[in-house]
Amino acid sequence: MRVQRHLAGVIAGVTTLSVLGGCAAQQIQALEPKIELRNAAQQLADAQQTGFVLKVTGNPDDLVAAAGKEADAATVAQLFNSSITMTTDKGGAGEADDRSSLAVNVDGVTGTEIRFVDGALYLKAPVKDLAAKFGATPADIKELSGGAPGLDALLAGKWISVDTKQLPGAAAASAKPDAEQQKILAEVTASATNLLEGADVVRDSADDKHLIVTSSTAKGYAEAKRLATAVEPSLASEFPAAPEKDQPVVIDLWLDGGKFTAAEVNVLQFVEGAQGRVAARLEFTEGGAIDAPAGATAVDLSGLLGATGGTMPYLKDLRPVN
User: Fold this and answer.
1) Residue 143, domain member (yes or no)
2) Which residues are within 8 A (CB) of 151 and not within 5 positions of it... i.e. 6 or more apart?
3) Domains in the chain: how many in total?
């Protein structure tokens, strides 16, 4: 009898440990994707150079169908054939020498790029190619320059440079963030953390590099309001009403080797009755060094804007080309 009681006790103990172990394994399994996300986010924040490409993917016909009469198939096709590439380079220690680049592909026309390097803005664009795509004539292009040397260089597809101190709101264009920018960055980081903590994160059984994050419109709204109010308290009374219907919001993330490789949000999930998939997609890259382009033509904005109170006389009658 004593042996049987001991044996029963051992069996009960093993059973209890097995149940507790199973519960712990489930908790660890549920927690593990969130830990991976946090580590990847930290890696991205600490990276010396970063980059990403923003594009729209999926079926253009699905977007046209969801938008109804307001959609133009040709315009939607242009959207799917365009992209934005942004890169950052922290340079040395501190923020003063941080650099960034923004390159745009407009319906297959590449070559438009803006760089911020050491207090200067550099710009180039294939103006003639873009103008031709959207119906402008050579006369329209000539009128844009007004004979200004710097703008003539830009219209010729060459680099121009502008001292950011001459730009409106030059303080915001500074490479070194001020206290307000630091506050905004901290609040955005807090919002992302809050949304992650309250979300359901699971790993795709068919692809272990794919994580599916599910939150809700109610959580997203609450965090958006918190963020807006933290940045600008006066917005609290002006914030739009909460959505009447709470629904799941799904974000797809891909990681490889502890780093983010892509992120997608299916925009059709916000359109009631929509079918198919149209996603805003971020593809993360390693980035690279960002340097000031050689041979850029310096443009003095004071000479262009000063005499006309901030307007260019040769642009006063410019109208969009139909």
Assistant:
1) no
2) 144, 145, 160, 299, 304
3) 1
